[in-house]
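Quick question: what would this complex look like in 3D?
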Amino acid sequence: MTSVPASPRVITEPYGDAAALVTVTGGEREERWRIVQYLAQATLADPPTGFVDCVAAFDTLLLELDIKPGAHDGAREWVDRTWPSVDHDARHDARTFTIPVLFGGDEGPDLHEVAAELGMTADAVVAEHCAREWTVRLVASPACAPMMDGGEWPQPIARRADPRVAIPPGTIALSGQQCVIYPLLAPGGWRLIGRTPLLLTDVSEQPPVAYRPGDILRFEPITPEQWRALVGVRLAQPR
Amino acid sequence: MTVDTLHIDQVGYATVQDLGRVGYERIGIAVNGAGDQWAATVANALVGNAPRTPHIEITASDFAFTTNAPLVMSVTGAPLTVQVDGYARHMWEPLVLQPRQQVRLSGMHSGLRSYIAVSGGLHATQVLGSCAVDTVLGIGSPVRRGDSLVLERPIATVDHPQFRHAFFRFAVHVPAYGADWIVPITPGPDLDAVEYGERALAEAVHEVSPVSNHIGLRLDGAVPTRIRFGEVLSRGVPVGAIEMPPGGGLLALLRGRHVTAGYLVLAVATQEGRRALGQCAPGHRVRWSWTTVDEAVQEHMRRQERITALQHNVFTAFSELGLPAYDPRCV
């Protein structure tokens, strides 16, 4: 039996003196995410009064605001006025990036363990990972990390019980049906399957990161020789 | 031509900071910047600088430098002893230095961070519009002994009797410092996911754990019982969010935090509360005081008026002496 989800509702509430939290409920998951992204994009062209910055996630948008009387009311009115213009049929002009990855070994120390848990061979995990199109859902901490959906593993991939303290830059990690790349040295509890030699975040560039929410990342296995030729090369915008 | 500098004679942990890297949280780059924004802003205001001017932030340690140029400086933040060539001087007021004078700061207590601003500011490498230290991105580095920090805009020699007069002492609001902090908070989105959350925090005393840094404070102590379960999807969290992680205790997020998180957020510290959290040292105790967003905004506006008044007074006094200064009317 399929249930018909209610149409989306958007609520804006104070989140402390300097922020508001916009929460989208109802509708499909994709629909909620699209509204959040639409609002985040709208802050660039037509921001609410006193807008400082925003953080777009799956079904919430954090709006950071100047601490001023009326700022929260202004933000709520802006959201109420802006979100209904979202075009659910409009296809995001998604670009596809190809990420070269050295799988397994020291670069992906959890690959064999993950494969065993899934009842697959390591080669099959790599082939499956590279067959999928991974959609960037949010660009977040640490350092512009792309949080991606798109796994179709037979079961969700469990996190480590004890998170690692230092994961090398470029490491590709899995949890549940999600994937993330750690652009810079960071702690984390996800399972590490490989590493890209590319430089993803470069603060000397504007923008510091090439991909944005809605873009597609595909992964492609490389050899250690190919790795050496790609170390430190910046991930470029696709043609 | 000699460069006008501060030569660092002694340092524990100090960095060159500003008020933060604004506008990049949408791609996951935290704002960072001075832990006590009030003290940093006042330090700059006292020497005629705009609020976002690079200054020195000293964390829980002694600090000494010698200048080779005349300048106006100020020291604010956590209480400590200020000496210029061995003579005691006051915090929270402009101090005139002549070339070759040595400034020594020691015995910081009742807080974690103190600030030095110099007229014209310090030269600092700007990355994405700010010199704020970002340990994740590797921006900025601690000041070392023997370093020479370059002055952005040296001033002509100042020798005026006004600097020795009370006239030059501006009435600065000095907030409370100590080992017991009262942090004003407003309700967070998950306060109803715990039992009697409001009362639980109102009655709680938390102790700052040594496992704390500029990303967040870990706070040991009782927490309310969770009564609503279910996944919290990763979402944006503001600086000052008071989270309840599953492992016990609370986390207070500071300016270097990850911009998204999936823990329950029980409350959010107000601007004044964030200032206090930025001064909390390990072993300090935190009590929570509920307020409303409207009251927090009003309180901030009152403080902002004080800053503007101070900037105006400094501008007037400096202008009479022919010194350049930030004019708050030209924003």
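Answer marked as accepted. The CA atoms of residues 188 and 267 of chain B lie 4 Å apart.
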